[in-house]
Amino acid sequence: MNSFYRRLCFLSVLLLMVCGVGAQTLSLDDCRKLALQNNKQLSVARLKQEVAKDAKGVAKAQYLPKVDVLGSYVHTTKEISLLNDKQKATFNSLGTTTYNSLATNLPSIAAELIGSGLITPEQAVALGDLFNKYGEGLKNGLDGLGQKVTDAFRTDTRNIWVGSIVVAQPIYMGGKLTAMNKIADISQDLAANETASREQTVLINTDKAYWLVVSLRHKKALAQQYYDLVKTLEDDVDKMVKSGVATKANKLSVSVKVNEADMTLTQVDNGLALSKMALCQICGLPIDSKIVLKDEEVSSFDVAPAVPTYPEDMAINNRPEIKMLENANDIAEQGVKLARSGYLPTVAMTAGWTISNPNVFNGFQKKFGDVFDIGVVFRMPLWNWGETKYKIRSAKAAKSISALELADAKDLVRLQVNQNEFKLNEANKKLIMTKKNIKSAEENLRAATLGFKEGVMTSSNVLEAQTAWLVANTQQIDAAIDVKLAQTELKKTLGILHFR
């Protein structure tokens, strides 16, 4: 047995040297911190919080006035005309029409005036001479005047420049803005609760991976001890075979156990390496990183049974999943109000400044002209073929669904709490039982080893005692890990699993 202890001490020192060189020592809190920092889904949840925060800013901005600047340029092939073609022709030929009318009617007018004694024939002739002398000038003057009138009515709107600044201030939107802002507030809470839920998921996965590594590390040490025990027994039996006090069959049965122990040691070693890779992946470290966990020390690994007591409604009040469903229910309630706003009027105040070229406020001058305006816009929906009614019914149905899902989730959470409490109590009892079994297995192994040395027990009895010792210690490791994980699962179920 002295050689066994020497080999064991040598292997322990060698293991510490191998693990210590370039290895990073991590505690459970270290692993949790790294996992929370590097988990991609958790980063997505945090970004969703930022999105919800920005959406809240958008909703609040709807209460404030909006200022828009508008500008446009339009070129048309035709201009806007205030006169039709007939009116234009009338104005353009005003002098010609007047001259022709006077020329045609002047003789009869002169005859009537002479007959009435108002003028003499000599005066009529003089009047005709005056008409002949000045009529052409009168015709041209009136035609020119008519052309000026026509030109004055031209708008020359083939090139139109318009610019404006518009201010709009909502006054009453039928409760739509209030509902939108409340939805934005609730969405922020929803994003925060989703982040908390993902954090708890990350923590529980980290704890499982961490304690799996610890479990396999202790099982590796246990497998090594078991291998050394059966190997020592094999050496003793080999000596007994050479001395003639044991058969080759005895040695073969022990050798089979040695091979099995060696294979178990290899499997545990491979499982430990893979579990550390999985833990590194969860922590955001390269999977080939060399890490050593603080709880890998056999002497420091001791778990005391724990029976915590918690308030009955703690899970309902703390579970982020329940809070998320409550958020969804509140959003659905605001959705009903948002749909109902379709029946209500909206009122907004507007003000603005407009500039245009041509100047429509001064005879379509080819200059920029501006104007200020202020007004109130009122909108009242009268008929939309039942669209608002269907929206309200749909929103109410969504609210009923969310309420039912919330009630169902609360029942499931209460069931989960009871299940995990039973699971923890069972793990505690199993841990107590395994500690008692280890004492019995150790005493049985001691007695079997002593009896084998004294020649009153066979190698089969020792193998059975060694196997029982291995099983008892394995069960104790599993029970201790089960207690740790059951405690963590219960905290997650209660919604109190947080990083310190």
Estimated structural class? alpha+beta
Number of helices: 12
- Report helical residue fraction: 55-70%
- What is the overall silhouette? rod-shaped
The radius of gyration over CA amounts to 50 Å
- Unreliable stretches (pLDDT < 50, length at least 5) are 1-21
- Per DSSP E runs of 2 or more residues, the count of β-strands stands at 6
Q: Within the largest sheet, what's the order of strands? A: 2-3-5-6
Order of helices and strands: HEHHEHHHEHHEHHEEHH
Largest sheet: 4 strands, antiparallel
Give an overview of the whole structure.
The chain is an alpha+beta fold. 70% of the residues lie in helices and 11% in strands. The protein is built from twelve helices and six strands. Strands 2-3-5-6 form a four-stranded antiparallel beta sheet, with no helix packed on it. α4 (85-92) packs across α6 (121-152) and α7 packs antiparallel against α12 (459-494). The longest helix has 68 residues, at 176-243.
What secondary-structure arrangement, pairings included, does this model have?
Blueprint: H1 2-20, E1 24-26, H2 28-38, H3 40-61, E2 66-75, H4 85-92, H5 94-115, H6 121-152, E3 159-172, H7 176-243, H8 248-283, E4 291-293, H9 314-318, H10 320-340, E5 346-357, E6 369-379, H11 387-454, H12 459-494
Parallel strand pairs: 1-4
Antiparallel strand pairs: 2-3, 3-5, 5-6
Helix pairs in contact: 2-7, 3-7, 4-6, 5-6, 7-8, 7-10, 7-12, 10-11, 11-12
